[in-house]
Design goal:
Layout: H1 3-14, H2 18-56, E1 61-66, H3 67-78, H4 100-108, E2 112-118, E3 125-128, E4 135-136, E5 141-142, E6 152-155, E7 166-170, H5 171-176, H6 182-185, E8 189-195, H7 197-202, E9 210-221, E10 232-233, H8 235-246, H9 251-255, E11 259-264, H10 269-278, E12 281-284, H11 286-329, H12 331-339, H13 344-383, H14 399-416, H15 418-425, H16 429-434
Parallel strand pairs: 5-10, 7-9
Antiparallel strand pairs: 1-11, 1-12, 2-11, 3-4, 3-8, 6-9, 7-10, 8-9
Helix pairs in contact: 1-13, 2-11, 2-13, 2-14, 11-13, 11-14, 11-15, 13-14, 13-15
C-alpha cells in the first residue's frame, strides 16, 4: 500500500465516527488557534518596536541615571516596601542625583564623545499666536546630540548643536495650537510658560511666578512611540527652561540633575555601560528603553501560550480516546487485514497517520480562523484607535512560525496516537476475527 493510499484510507477511517472526530479536531483547534494568534500578536508588536528602534537610530546614544534612582523605581513597581536600611555614607551609588565627581569620571572614560547633564524641566502650558487658549504641557522631551533620528511629517528634528531655541511638535498638538497643517507650523513660534520655583513660594497667584520663553517650530513629529512622549526640544531650549525655572536658586541646587545623555563609540557601548555602573550610574540605549515595552507584551503573551498548551494537552487526551475507541470498533477489520498479509508496521502506520491527520486538520482550522480574525482586527484597529499609527499591525503572521506550530501540533498528535497504534499493531489476527 502506497503512502498516499494510507493517508486517504486513514482520513476516510477518521470520519467514520464524524461526531467523535469533529469534537477531537475542535479541541486541537482551540489550542492551535490560541497559540497561533498569540504568536502573531507577539510578531506584530515586535515588528512595530523593531521599526521604531530602526527609525530612531541612535547607535551609541545612552540615557544615564543614578543607579539609586533606577533601583528605587524598580522597588516601587515591585511593591516591595520593606527593604532593610544600611548605612553606606556618601557613596556615589547612593546619591539621588548625578554628582560633579561622577560627571568628571564619565567625561574621562575613553569612548565617550559627548556628555550632557539634563535638569528637570517643568512647563505649565504652551500656546501660539494663532489661538487665545493655553494648553497644559505634561512633558517636554529632549532631542539629544548625536545620530538619534526623529521621524517628522514636516520640517526637521531640532538641532541640539544650535543655540537657537527649537521645538518639534506632535501632530495633535499642531492642530490644537491652531496651525492649519504640519507644513504651516514650520517656522512659526510657540510660547512656553515656566514656573519659577523661588517666585512661586511668595506669589499671590501662580501666573505671577511664570516666566515665558518663545521657541521656533522646526518640525512636526510623525506618529509613533517616539512621538508619544510629547513635543521635543533641542538642548538650548531645554537649558533655557531650566534657567528660567531655577533663577534665584543657589548654584549647588541649580546644578543637581537626575539624568544625562551621552554619545559614545557604538562599538564600545557594553564596555562603557559597565564602567558607568562601576561609578554608580545606569545607562540605557534606545533599544533598552523601547525593549521594556517588548518585555511587557512578551509576559502577557506567555500566559496565552500557557492556555493554548493546556488546550493541546486536553486535545492529546482526546486523540488517545478517539483512537482507542477506533481500534476497539475495528478489531475484526484489523484481523482481516493481517490475515490478508498486512504487516504490523503498516497497521501501526495507518493508525499513526490518523493521529497526525487529527493534528493537521486542527492546525488548519486554527490557522484559517486566526488569520481571518487577525486581518479583521488589523482593519478595525487602523480605522479606530490605531488610525494615527498606520505602520502598526497588531497581528503579523509569520508563515515559518505557523508551519513550525502546525508541525509541533502534528507531532504531539502522533505521540498521543502511539499507544493506540501499538495496540492495533499487536492484535492477533485469529482472535481479532473471532471478536464480536
Amino acid at each position: 500500500m502506497k503512502l498516499t493510499d494510507i493517508i486517504i484510507t486513514a482520513n476516510h477511517n477518521l470520519f467514520r465516527s464524524k461526531t467523535r472526530t469533529i469534537l477531537t479536531i475542535i479541541a486541537i483547534f482551540i489550542g492551535s488557534f490560541t497559540i497561533i494568534l498569540s504568536n502573531a500578536i507577539n510578531s506584530g508588536v515586535n515588528d512595530f518596536i523593531d521599526k521604531q528602534i530602526e527609525s530612531a537610530g541612535g547607535d551609541g546614544y545612552l540615557e544615564i541615571m543614578p543607579t539609586a534612582v533606577t533601583e528605587n523605581a524598580v522597588m516601587a513597581l515591585s511593591g516591595n516596601g520593606a527593604v532593610e536600611y544600611k548605612e553606606t555614607g556618601n557613596a556615589p551609588s547612593e546619591q539621588p542625583y548625578i554628582t560633579n565627581e561622577q560627571i568628571e569620571k564619565v567625561r574621562a572614560i575613553d569612548g565617550v564623545e559627548s556628555f550632557d547633564v539634563l535638569h528637570t524641566t517643568t512647563v505649565d502650558y504652551i500656546t501660539s499666536n494663532k489661538i487665545d487658549k493655553k494648553y497644559k504641557l505634561f512633558n517636554l522631551n529632549l532631542v539629544p546630540r548625536g545620530n538619534v533620528n526623529l521621524d517628522v511629517t514636516a520640517g526637521r528634528k531640532p538641532d541640539s548643536e544650535s543655540t537657537n531655541l527649537e521645538i518639534a511638535l506632535t501632530e495633535d498638538l499642531t492642530k490644537t495650537l491652531g496651525f492649519e497643517n504640519a507644513e504651516a507650523a514650520i517656522g512659526e513660534t510657540v510660547t512656553l510658560a515656566i514656573p519659577n520655583t523661588i517666585d512661586c513660594y511668595t506669589a499671590a497667584t501662580h501666573s505671577e511666578c511664570q516666566r515665558q520663553v518663545t521657541a521656533t517650530v522646526v518640525g512636526v513629529q510623525a506618529p509613533g512611540v517616539m512621538a508619544s512622549g510629547g513635543p521635543r526640544a533641542n538642548l538650548a531650549l531645554f537649558e533655557k527652561v531650566h534657567e528660567l525655572a531655577s533663577d534665584g536658586m543657589s548654584q549647588e541646587t541649580k546644578s543637581q540633575a537626575y539624568q544625562a545623555t551621552a554619545q559614545v563609540d557604538p562599538a564600545r557601548v557594553d564596555e562603557i555601560k559597565a564602567k558607568l555602573k562601576d561609578i554608580g550610574l545606569t545607562a540605557m540605549t534606545i533599544d533598552d528603553q523601547v525593549g521594556m515595552i517588548r518585555t511587557f507584551f512578551d509576559a502577557i503573551l506567555v500566559v496565552f501560550n500557557i492556555f493554548g498548551g493546556i488546550a493541546l494537552l486536553a486535545a492529546a487526551i482526546g486523540i488517545i480516546n478517539t483512537l482507542f475507541m477506533s481500534v476497539q470498533e475495528r478489531t475484526r477489520e484489523i484481523g482481516l487485514e493481517k490475515a490478508l498479509g498486512m504487516s504490523s508496521g503498516k497497521i501501526f502506520l495507518s493508525f499513526s497517520t490518523e493521529a497526525i491527520l487529527l493534528g493537521f486538520w486542527g492546525s488548519v482550522l486554527g490557522i484559517a480562523l486566526s488569520m481571518l480574525i487577525g486581518f479583521g482586527l488589523n482593519a478595525l484597529a487602523h480605522a479606530t484607535f490605531l488610525a494615527d499609527l498606520p505602520t502598526f499591525n497588531i497581528v503579523v503572521f509569520n508563515p515559518i512560525n505557523m508551519l513550525i506550530i502546525a508541525l509541533i501540533i502534528m507531532l504531539i498528535a502522533f505521540i498521543a496516537g502511539t499507544a493506540p497504534a501499538i495496540r492495533a499493531a499487536k492484535k492477533d489476527p485469529i482472535n481479532s476475527l473471532r471478536y464480536e
